[in-house]
Amino acid sequence: MAEADITLESRVDVTLAAELRSTLDMALSGEGTLSVDAAAVEQVDTAGIQLLLALRQEAERRGRAFAWQAASPALQDTARRLGLEAQLGLPPAAVSTED
């Protein structure tokens, strides 16, 4: 498997939003598919989901495909609870259905 353009740490939340935004902006400057490895994410809040959604939308606006290399259960569950799994492009089979 190819190396991801972005590898997320265990936390994706409001306390790290500015730092993460800088990393995401740098990744957007490339070409081809923008891949994100979110396997290590253990904690994600609404601000983190918003940032990831903005990343996906901006990649598509720039004509770049967006792909999840991996998405942790925490990310999948938070996206599902917010009703944003489809907008984030998470595959339906990977999204938890447990409450």
Describe the structure in your own words.
The chain has 99 residues and is an alpha/beta fold. The chain is 42% helix and 17% strand. It has helices at 17-28, 46-61, 73-82, 85-88; strands at residues 6-7, 11-12, 34-38, 43-44, 66-71. The chain has a three-stranded parallel β-sheet. It has a two-stranded parallel ribbon with strand order 2-4. α1 (17-28) runs parallel beside α2. It is globular. 25% of the residues are buried.
- What would you call the shape? globular
Reported CATH architecture: 2-Layer Sandwich
The number of E-state strands comes to 5
CATH class: Alpha Beta
Kindly report the CATH topology. Transcription Regulator spoIIAA
Number of spatially distinct domains = 1
**How far apart, in Å, are the first and last alpha carbons?**
32 Å
- What's the CATH H-level homologous superfamily? STAS domain
- Cross-sheet strand order for the largest sheet: 1-3-5
